[in-house]
Design goal:
This protein has 333 residues and is an alpha/beta fold. It has helices at residues 22-39, 66-73, 75-78, 105-108, 146-159, 192-196, 201-215, 222-232, 266-286, 301-317; strands at residues 56-60, 91-96, 114-117, 132-138, 160-171, 236-246, 320-329. It has a seven-stranded mixed beta sheet, with helices on both faces.
């Protein structure tokens, strides 16, 4: 079993802009629990997945392994994991291109979690094909181009059993205000030039995030592109949920996916965006690529901090981001 102390885990994803370390692990944990609360699935796994019918699970692009560990903590799962002996055991596996953020073996071993290093753009070993009832793969929007999504989804398709499920959670990396919300959920694409080119703080934020995604060939509109991607990979959509996630003061008026209040998550929603854009802006500044707004280069740490103060205040006022949860299924023959 590989863990963060294994030297073979030093491989880095060249497309990943944020630096590994305690701050990034904290950011990923904050984001995970915020989004778990926001998607608000009553039984942890989204419908129509029934945990009692799941035996073999793989978390792809697992990062810190937090999803797998959280699944292991659910009572319906825990009773089927070591040290319990049961007729229908649950087997949990997790993989990523780097194991640098994985928990140590002593955390994973007691519940039998198998952790290994694997790039989802590489086919899985043949002995894994057709063996998983459930694959989880989340938030690779700032990692995969359109071509790479096709490769990744095909590789995931191959390890699913016929009838097996894939959970995808992704966001569209574009910030909106309540007065200028995202387009409707009818396939209308984002008007990216109007969201990037301007002088407001929201334009500055989009000039960092959305513009970075565009320049690197990442897919900005996964919320409406996924149906074609999944169909091309031989997967069908069993359930799709597209919702607007609020930050700051908008948490008082927007709800979770099932209608619960977001008010208690106001501070967390601000921290989540602050940490992400702070890390991204530092990386862009280091590379001499930080512009906010487009065409205005920021070349000093002082100017970056001044901009981040504006960003923090605007996030606290309230913004909206498109979030999506899809359950796809490998059809039975």
């Amino acid at each position: 079993m590989l863990n963060s102390n294994d030297n073979s885990s030093d491989k880095r994803n060249a497309d990943y802009m944020l630096v590994d370390g305690p701050a990034e692990i904290r950011r990923l944990s904050t984001m995970y629990y915020l989004l778990k609360y926001f998607f608000d699935n009553q039984n942890f796994l989204p419908e129509p997945i029934n945990i009692e019918e799941i035996g073999n699970v793989l978390d792809v692009g697992a990062g810190t392994g937090i999803w797998t560990l959280d699944l292991a903590d659910q009572s319906a799962a825990a009773a089927r994991l070591p040290p319990h002996d049961c007729e229908h055991p649950l087997r949990l596996s997790m993989c990523d291109i780097s194991t640098a953020k994985f928990p140590p073996a002593e955390v994973l071993a007691p519940v039998g979690i198998k952790a290994f290093q694997h790039d989802v753009l590489t086919p899985f070993p043949a002995d894994m094909h057709g063996t998983f009832d459930l694959v989880n793969m989340n938030y690779l929007v700032i990692a995969l181009t359109e071509d790479k999504w096709g490769i990744a989804l095909k590789n995931v398709h191959d390890v699913l059993k016929p009838g097996g499920y894939l959970i995808l959670r992704e966001s569209d990396p574009v910030f909106y205000s309540a007065s200028s919300p995202p387009p409707p959920d009818d396939g209308t694409p984002h008007d990216l030039p109007s969201q990037i080119n301007g002088t407001t703080v929201v334009h500055k934020m989009n000039s960092m995030l959305a513009n970075f995604a565009i320049k690197n060939g990442f897919v900005v509109g996964l919320s409406y592109r996924f149906p074609e991607f999944l169909e091309h990979a031989g997967l069908r959509i069993a359930r799709r949920k597209r919702v607007l996630m609020p930050t700051g003061d908008l948490c008082d008026s927007y709800t979770t996916a099932r209608g619960a209040s977001m008010a208690s998550l106001k501070a967390t929603s601000i921290d989540n965006i602050d940490m992400a854009l702070d890390g991204l802006s530092k990386a862009l500044l280091d590379k001499g690529m930080l512009e906010a707004p487009v065409g205005t280069k920021i070349e000093s740490e002082q100017k970056r901090l001044e901009m981040m103060k504006e960003v923090h205040e605007r996030v606290a006022e309230g913004l909206l981001v498109v979030q999506m949860e899809v359950v796809a299924q490998r059809p039975c023959p």
